[in-house]
User: Fold these one by one.
Assistant:
Number 1:
Amino acid sequence: MKSTLRFSPGGLIDCLYTEAIDLHQLGRLHVVRATDIRFNDQTQEWETRHADTGEVLFSNLSRAACLQWEHENLQPQSRTHNLTNQLHPIPMKQIIILAFSLLIAACGPNKTQLRSELQSIDSEMVNLRIAAEQHRSKMDQAEYVAFIGSFAAGYGATSGNYELAGDGADTAVRSSRQYDASSYSLDQLKQRYEVLAKRRTEIVKQLN
């Protein structure tokens, strides 16, 4: 994921908080919570809400999708809801140091940095595989429960047991939503895994 740092003429930096770079090196932080992600029991969806007004900005069955929406829509150049995270003014010397650091980074990391990044990538890929298996297990379970719920709904309707039919239908719907949410999360994990695998190949080539 890419993050944007916007420098104002007055020496302020506006950005969506990230730990990709050490923001503490730029000066004293002033962090304001822009949104709040909550689960809505009625709609059975996760909602990204404006932290001050409570306005629903985005909703989805997947919490990961809400986090992704935050990252894509709350960067300085894309904000439409006057949501700001600002840093206090910083000395020009520190800006120069940051620029110099970025210049060094542009020249390419050394082998020690590459090995460290490779180790981090390998660790994350293992965690992604574990998470993917968990979501596949949830999908299998949700599919089974949805089948049982559908069967109960059909049996209840034909036998005149409408309470059983209603409960079965509700179970089938909830399980189908859980299946969709796990499926979406699994797709996100696969995309991240592919990105890491590509980067890993690049690092291995640089080290060889």
Number 2:
Amino acid sequence: MKKLFRFFRRDRENLKAILKIFFLSQNLMVPQIQWNNTRDPGNDTVCLMIYYYARILYELAELNENRVARELLDYVRRVARRLLSLTGQERRFQIPLGELRLGQSLDQPADRLYEAKLISLGSDSYRLDFQGVIGKEKFFLPASVLGLLQYCIDHLGEEYLDHLAQGLQRLHYFYRYRQDFWEGAGLLRGPAFALGKESLPPPGPPEEPNPVEE
């Protein structure tokens, strides 16, 4: 009977996309998305970004890097707020990435690879399977999130940028009021809330100056 249930569970699962993030020499990062089954790549890219971000926050907490996770959360929160405050071509800003550079293609062997699989479970429910090399994670894990976020800013259409920024804000709200990012259940519940329709309370008081502004 257990084998039968496992069979039906696998039958409902649908691999939507495979994300690969390569780190090469000279601080070069190359994100690649391989689509397997999607009718709306823009919407699924937003979904992939939200689930990946939640997973990296969790991975940092698992590695006892809570301070790094909170710094990443605060930084992404500011990027999301800036995205919502701008329109048109202004939204194609560059996130300060330090020495990290974003590349378009692989022209040399990668030193490090992170891979994430976005799996649809039906009824707008998803799971993200993640694997990657462990080591120097207080740099590479946050860098992978910011690099993927820059990729989204560069490539998504206007309506999807709105969806992304709103989803990021909703995920941050979930972690602040509902559940912390180091709780395993948040890996599913947080992104599901972020991509849902439940209304949010009015924003709080203005924040300090935004560090992602040029």
Number 3:
Amino acid sequence: MVMKLKSATICLLLVSAFASANNRSVDVKNLKTTYQDLMDKPNTIERQKAYFDAFPGTWEDFISTYRYSDASGYDLSMYNESHNHIQVLSGRVTLLPDSVYCRKLVNIAVGASLSADAPSHFQELLHRVMWKRMDGMLREVAKLRRGYQMQFWQFYWSSPLSSKDVETEYQRLLKLNADAYPQQMETMKIAYNYFYNGINIDGGYQED
């Protein structure tokens, strides 16, 4: 009888552990619904706002929603939709003010780390939005404490390889914003020097 109780307890603990691992704090059902509503009728501020509000608002929520897992029974539907969900933030969410739109994107990027799939897609989104809403993005980054500003730029410039396009973008950002955002550009320079062409995408150590 004792052995049976112990076995049952172990099973319950394993089920509970798996449920916690598979749990997402974002309302996935609402996110899927508002995404489909937006795709059906994109040019309404109500639907754009509903989807934008449903989208994860922090890096922790973002990665728990769109992460990959090979655990048995793990629901990969959100992982598989990550590219589409991120793409529409620049392609179809166009009517929200910078104070709302840019603030959320900047907030998600603080503390983010680059890896394949959803994080990479989100980094690409930030680069697109920077050139569509540059003042809005830089104003929101400027509101952060300096450590968080560094975290934003760290993710923005993180790259395992060199790229002429990225290097050109960096020089253009410096040239355009050196007078208006001098402190921002100094912080950006440091992050670029450390994290552009300076990380391993798996987060591991480089072997000799």
